[in-house]
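Re: the pair you flagged

First of the two:
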Amino acid sequence: MRKWKITGCLVLATVLLCGAGEPRVYATNLSNITSDSIREMEDQIDNAQNERDQLKNGLSDIKKLVQQLEQEKKDLKSYVAKLDENMAQIEQKIAELKIQIADKETDIEEAGRQLEHAMEVEANQYETMSNRIKFSYERGENYFLEMLLGSTSFADFLNRSYYMEQVADYDNQMLESFIQTREYVELCKAQLEQDKAFLDEAKAGVEIEQAALEELMDQKARELDAYEQRISTGEQSIDEYEADIKAQEELISALEKAVEDEKKRILASSGKVLTYDGGTFKFPLASYTRISDEYGMRTHPTLHVPQFHNGVDLASPKGTAIYAAYDGIVVAADYSSTMGNYVMIDHGGGLYTIYMHASKLYVKKDDVVARGNTIAAVGSTGRSTGPHLHFSVRLNGEYVSPWNYISP
């Protein structure tokens, strides 16, 4: 602890000083600012630097991801699943960075206010001490000696001596407090600069991750286009394409059978079972830009052969809310390499709706949903080259036109 010697009386001020880093430390009184609190602030500045290093090290290495994906191209299903997994991880990083940015902006705003107040107090302390020193200088070196010699008795002499000693100690304490306040303010400034640097790097990190995400999306679109070009070269390739669709339908049929078996069990035990009441479906999207592919038979764009499209594709911006078309029970909320993230809902009476290629799922198997509940968000997972919702309706094990239940 440094020792400073001055004489005279200073006015004790109360101040709320700024801290920075995690956890934030705020001094509510100048007496709280000690060498320990200064060391704490220095540690927080070191931690802030580590936080910035972790941010840099946590950014996606897009070149490494692309190299890893090259090894998966021989198996399209594995490739799509791995690519979707990478995109989901990048989207999670972007979400976490945005949270960190919001938190850091709050920290900077609060720290700026506290630092401004602390600097005002520092200036007031400096002015008070300057006036005190000026007062002592004007009185001269003999002022305190004259006070002692002016004592009217020995008791008065002792009282005056004790008073002067207390004033000197008090002055020394206030000078030490001022020195520590000044040092603390400088550390606050350094911490604030670290916070601002982290904020800038986090914002740059969002741009890096967003660019990585877009590059993976472009790569996926190119590979799926190339795949469809390849399968247009012969009947065997067409069979391969149709086998993927068949596998998708087999999965959905298996889910339907499992539901129907469960309904029979419930019916046998209680006599109660979910039944569709014939109501009108809610349109399954909050908004859409166009119908990118209709339900029914059409000529495949790359195979150039008649193909049945078992739903309607609704192009919509990524993240657009997907709604449950009607009351029901979630049969599945899962991922497949063709459907991507998908939700399947049982509405009773053999009626099901299916929602494919979502970026996020907000429901899980066995959840009860009401007409209009948000169940997912539009994405481009699975066999998809752009953000859209593939919406299908099945009745008694067969696909039917969604337009029988909704209107555009």
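Second of the two:
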Amino acid sequence: MDDFLTDQQQAARVRGWVREYAPTAIVAVAIGIGGYFGYDQWQLRQDRQSAVASELYEDFRAAIESDDRDSAGTLLESLVADHEGSGYADHARLLMAKEYVDTTQPSLAEQELQAVIATTSNGDLRQLARLRLARVYLYMDRPEDGLDALNSDVYSPAWRQLAEDMRGDLHQALGQKDAARAAYQAALEHSGQIDAAWIRLKLDHLAASGADQAAAPQPADESAPAEEG
């Protein structure tokens, strides 16, 4: 029926639509534009923060490589203070933990690795930090703490071989040979960063030590009665 309206009637109808719907449309457009520019500003801020964190991290790495521990510590503090939980802060802490292990300061490495575990949002980095923490505990002759740290996570296929191999080392340090053997065998079932020949060597060592123990002369039972001649 609109085809039969006069030009004047159609113009009046358009003016009515404008009066009724224009305020809502204007608000919707304003919200849309505001949301777009709000997101754009947020993205720019994120990019700026990422650039600052990246520069801090590169300076930190340079300080580590030049053995400037004081500067490295200061830069790490800045990264953690302003970019806690970011990939840059996580990687810096992992690198600092390695530096502490290399300079025989495992308790400080423990602190950095625990901080990564507590703050990172990256599952792979958290698992890597747990594996390294377990290794640090083994180095500190605290294998039970190593097992506790290791068993506090579920490992993705990328880390499962390393986790089982680490579990084997910890059980072996505790003298739990059957558990160590089971862990090494589980490690062989997964592909990963460790050469299977190295894991088999550990299994061979376990078997050899078990055979040596079985072949060793047993102490005489002093409670048994002596044979009469």
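The chain has a mean pLDDT of 81.

-B.
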